[in-house]
Amino acid sequence: MNQDIILLGHGSGGKLSHQLLDEVILPHLSSTGAAGQNDAALLQIGGSKLAFSTDSYVVDPIFFPGGNIGDLAVNGTVNDLSMMGARPLFISVAFILEEGFSKKEFAEILASMRRAADAAGVSLVTGDTKVVPKGKADRIFINTSGIGVLEHGLQIDGGQGRVGDQILVSGTIGDHGIAVLCAREGLGMQTGVTTDSAPLNGLVQELLGLGDALHVLRDPTRGGVATTLKEIALQSEIAITLREEALPVNEGVTGVCSILGLDPLYVANEGKLLAFVAPDRAQEALKIMRAHPMGCDAAIIGEVTSSGGGRIQMETVVGGMRGVEMLSGEQLPRIC
Amino acid sequence: MNQDIILLGHGSGGKLSHQLLDEVILPHLSSTGAAGQNDAALLQIGGSKLAFSTDSYVVDPIFFPGGNIGDLAVNGTVNDLSMMGARPLFISVAFILEEGFSKKEFAEILASMRRAADAAGVSLVTGDTKVVPKGKADRIFINTSGIGVLEHGLQIDGGQGRVGDQILVSGTIGDHGIAVLCAREGLGMQTGVTTDSAPLNGLVQELLGLGDALHVLRDPTRGGVATTLKEIALQSEIAITLREEALPVNEGVTGVCSILGLDPLYVANEGKLLAFVAPDRAQEALKIMRAHPMGCDAAIIGEVTSSGGGRIQMETVVGGMRGVEMLSGEQLPRIC
């Protein structure tokens, strides 16, 4: 492997992404208040505590079952802000367009962004458009950055996981990644799998009612549930045990994964969250999730068993135990 | 011209960019608080008045005399916030990398971003990195978004130009565009022209001392001074007269422009600002600019002669008058 160049895997969200971040990016960019391993930075301005996040979207194809790059970009930034416990308010949008891109498709994408913003209750307030010659980009790339406000004194981030915490997922896993993969490979609608891309700010507002029993929120996007949990385990210095049989997976996703040899635990989600909740409030958290349209398939999938190490184990359906590591290499490039 | 597809000119910052914005983008995206024609949106959060802006950078080549895509991206967003009279505080950075891009060049760009942030006194607080397969992007694209705070009650934007206002430019025009063009065409260092990419927040803090005599601030980037003034003239509903002989232009820029048939008035700047100032404070404004390292070649280049119309005329060096329009088509693609 050439050590001197950028590889596709550096964009996977997995092990190589973390290496690039730790070895190349953070040494230059980290400064006071840096987001580090979290989905957004927390900022104090005047009397307000704000969250600030950014994400670029390069998904291929740009239209896929259940969504497109536009609503994905809005929901993604809404969710990054939400995972810090912030209420998302304002979103910026920046387009890089390839010369020759269809204005009609662009208008469709814009309309989806507007609908997604309205659904999440956020305003698209500022933007930018650049055009590059044909062959220098792939149709359309979108950056969304967002500002949210923290209206509580809770500290919710990837470093707050504690021994005994129950781990909840808000619904079925792997839907987004498999929907995009099927669209890309021409499997089309046959599998019936659609993206789960959706705004999670409403669900998070409900979960904030758990107060300081709510320790971690994170949306398992690139790298899937496995990679996200591994990040949290390392950040919180905890060990986690998952129960494979508790993982909610749609039938269509299970089918495609078994044919293609993919593990849904590593497949991207765009409308799901993981929550770490104190044990005595876990059933209440589950009830809150299941009562919300974004959490009807929620489940308790594991717990924090001890401190230290960042180790994740999974009790398999056949009764064994296996280690769970971060995504290594690139499973599905350009999934978001 | 095919009406259904995106053209290079849609990214020029000129007439086609405005058409795309007005006809395709704004009908979908505009909502309360939208930046519209300004460089940043103004937001009220808690007791704070904030400016929020976004810009993507796709400049080609990524290294050019005096700078690279990294410092350009930091300075650009610092300046967009400054032009609203805000003090820039926090910047997000998002990278789209092409598979195979050099890690060494990436590290160089990151180091430049850090130096630019330190020079401007802003923090790079959150980021994102995506990688696309070889041939699907051009080495590196960077988005920077920024948050600034308004610490005064002045209204400074493109709609505040008034009859009698004197128009100042903070220094020589066209340097950035010509530096990039020379690098691209292999004219290299022969012309001695370097980018003017620089943070303008320090200069703006000084100019804010003019209080409500300061009406408009705008940095003439894509489309140059001509296009930016035309935007202001339309937004403020005013007519402007420029004096060609007053325009500060470096010798090297004049030389390259005359050889290639370019007009420096349409060439991009990345470290200059235009200011509209009440006539009785214009000399004071000029003095403030010239006393600042970012404004030593400042000049009064024209004035607002009447209300209505959005018309711009220029008294030429030979004593005639010519109309000045917005950049039409694309003079220099991928200049920022």
Automatic annotation (TrEMBL), chains A, B:
Domain PurM-like C-terminal as annotated: residue spans: 162-313
Coiled-coil stretches are none
Q: Where is the PurM-like N-terminal domain?
A: 38-149
Q: Name one GO biological process term.
A: protein maturation
InterPro entries named among the record's database cross-references? HypE, PurM-like_C_dom, PurM-like_C_sf, PurM-like_N, PurM-like_N_sf
What the record says about family reads: Belongs to the HypE family.
Family annotation (NCBIfam families): hypE
Q: What is this protein called?
A: Hydrogenase expression/formation protein HypE
Species of provenance: Geomesophilobacter sediminis
